[in-house]
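Onboarding guide, step 5: your first structure request.
Type a short instruction followed by the sequence, for example:

Predict the 3D structure of this protein.
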Amino acid sequence: MTPSPAHIDHPSGLRLPDEAIATVQSLLLDWFARNGRDLPWRRTRDPYRVLVSEIMLQQIQVARAIPFYEAFVERFATVEALAAAALADVIRVWKDLGRYRRIVYLHRTANIVVADFGGSVPDDPAVLRTLPGVGPYTAGAIACFAYELDVAFVDTNMKRVLHRVVLGPERLERPAKDAELLELAARLLPTSRAWRWNSALMDLGATVCKARNPACGTCPLRTACRSAAEFLSGRASPIAVRKTPPYRFEESDRFYRGRVLATLRSLGDDGADPSGIDLRDLGRAIRGDFQDEHLDWLGGLVRGLSKDGLAVLNEERPVYDAEPVARVKLP
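The system replies with structure tokens like these:
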């Protein structure tokens, strides 16, 4: 059989013939058929539910996202239900999942889909990218996982697999640019099997080709991978060790943003005042050492939440004035 002249070119100069592409595709898809993760959003092709899952999964681990996803789609079963809901109710259902701007983006997107697209989530990645909070990866994922279109995209796990398997260990210190990896992903994409292929790449990166401890000995692509031998021999390090200053999440503004929203979500429960909470009372609720000297910091934190559409701050008086300083509530 005469090999096809088609090949993959990339910055390392490597040329991957059709036979090699077919081998990688076959090995990975066979592995996925036996080992693919059973995730709730994989049991549906409902574009709305795929949209919810992809927005939720941005920088959130899969295992943590699952119960939040299930509760969310139970409460807001359709895009129309989400669009009709008050943002405050959506924030309450989102609970402590984090990355709270995504709640506002998702709610805005639901309203746009209902108003401009008749309640149907678009299938065109270019159109999807015009929606709030939907970037290139999320747009590609929705088009592929909801509509099974042959669309290539790359997340962190997929980038790592492509880098190791195709580019090899010599490029670990000089990582390829995202555009180069996306082009590589597109050339490897098997026609009419994009849903399985992209899911398989994700799962391999999440469960086998991990950042710190890749299980090369059990990897289905070890015979086709340009990095496996180096990792197995110990000649290559999976990741570069980066020295970073100590960081305590519990001392960060992001942590306290979450504490503020958790407190605001509780307003209206057990007879609490649904009109809001005094800024000083809010400060005492989120940190035990709160003093008036923290009012400026807390006011800035709440104004940031207000700017993101996550809270309403009624500043009847400047934060340094006498009682009361301000009241805060969910939008």
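Each response can be followed by summary notes, for example: The first helix runs from residue 18 to 35.
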